[in-house]
Amino acid sequence: MDEFEELEMEFATNNRNDALPGFLVPEGKFQNWNVYGNHPYLEHELENSTLWLMANLWFTGWFGIVFIALSVMSFGLLPFIIGVKYLWDFIMIKSELFLFVNCSSNYIYWDRKDQFAIPMKYGKVMLFTSNQIKSIVVEYNSRDIIHIKNYRTFNVNIDFQSSLLRAPENLKRQMVQDKINFTQVLRLITNIEPKMKYIAKSTGS
């Protein structure tokens, strides 16, 4: 049995309500909801190693060089494009026109019944119910994302992949388990069989 078949069998396990707790939100607007993913209530220490510091400096340096080069080549066009994109997102999210923006997050709330919420920028939250979900796609291996599409063609992307450079091993393991548990939640309350999408590590596409 290969890795794909093993994961298919694991996701096919139904009625494991005792394995679906997520993390109980202790306070705020979503008090007593469950939350899955790399959420603000997690307590973990970042790895503070020389290797991480060197990798971070290398990444930041190359990003700065590429950004400066693109800015020079575009003669000021790139900052304009970034500004327009920022303004577009600001207007759409503030107006709660989530259909026209990228709805992505590292965590998602569930009210333990049939309602979900994902945090957006500028203090906004997108709410949707289980009967609005029309399709579920689970990517795994080199990517750990769950794509949810609802009746208004909203595309909700929940990324359960922790930072490769700074996340401790216990957080990475929890992200894997949270994705499994949350996929089971979606299956149980929507009665939709998630489509498993294998993303090869060698390509990352």
Itemize the secondary structure elements and their pairings.
Blueprint: H1 3-11, E1 23-24, E2 34-37, H2 50-73, H3 77-94, E3 103-105, E4 107-110, E5 115-119, E6 125-129, E7 133-141, E8 145-150, E9 155-159, H4 169-190, E10 195-199
Parallel strand pairs: 3-9, 7-10
Antiparallel strand pairs: 1-2, 2-4, 4-5, 5-6, 7-8, 8-9
Description of the molecule:
There is one protein chain. This protein has a domain at 3-39 and 98-199. It is built from 4 helices and 10 strands, in the order αββααβββββββαβ. It has helices at residues 3-11, 50-73, 77-94, 169-190, and strands at residues 23-24, 34-37, 103-105, 107-110, 115-119, 125-129, 133-141, 145-150, 155-159, 195-199. It has a 5-stranded antiparallel beta sheet, covered by helices on one side. Strands 3-9-8-7-10 form a 5-stranded mixed beta sheet, with helices on one face.
Please give the largest β-sheet: 5 strands, antiparallel
Class from helix and strand fractions: alpha+beta
Task: Identify low-pLDDT runs.
Answer: 12-18
Percentage of helical residues?
25-40%
Rounded to an integer, what's the Rg over CA atoms? 19 Å
Order of helices and strands: HEEHHEEEEEEEHE
**Could you tell me the strand content as a percent range?**
15-25%
What can be said about this structure in brief?
The chain is of the alpha+beta class.
Index terms:
single chain; 205 residues; alpha+beta; 10 strands; 36% helix; globular
